[in-house]
Specification:
This is Amino acid permease. Helix content is 79%, strand content 0%. By secondary structure, the protein is mainly alpha-helical. The relative contact order is 0.20.
Length: 70
């Protein structure tokens, strides 16, 4: 189950990266967007979507952190 949810979470994070996160100037907005998308997966969802939401928040925050790492 972890592998299948991780695949879906990485697809969502890559879509976020190519559509929004790559163009942002501030990391705070990036963290906010990623956490907001993760929370939407958590709200009134089955178990798989809850795991996907947690993994989206983790992977997304990692991607934003790596982008602004200097």
């Amino acid at each position: 189950m972890l592998f299948s949810t991780l695949i879906l979470a990485s697809i969502v994070v890559s879509l976020l990266w190519f559509s929004i996160l790559q163009k942002l100037e501030s990391p705070k907005i990036g963290y906010f967007i990623v956490i907001l998308v993760g929370i939407t997966f958590l709200y009134r969802s089955p178990v798989h979507s809850i795991y996907i939401g947690i993994e989206i928040m983790g992977l997304g925050c990692l991607v934003v952190w790596i982008k602004y790492l200097k």
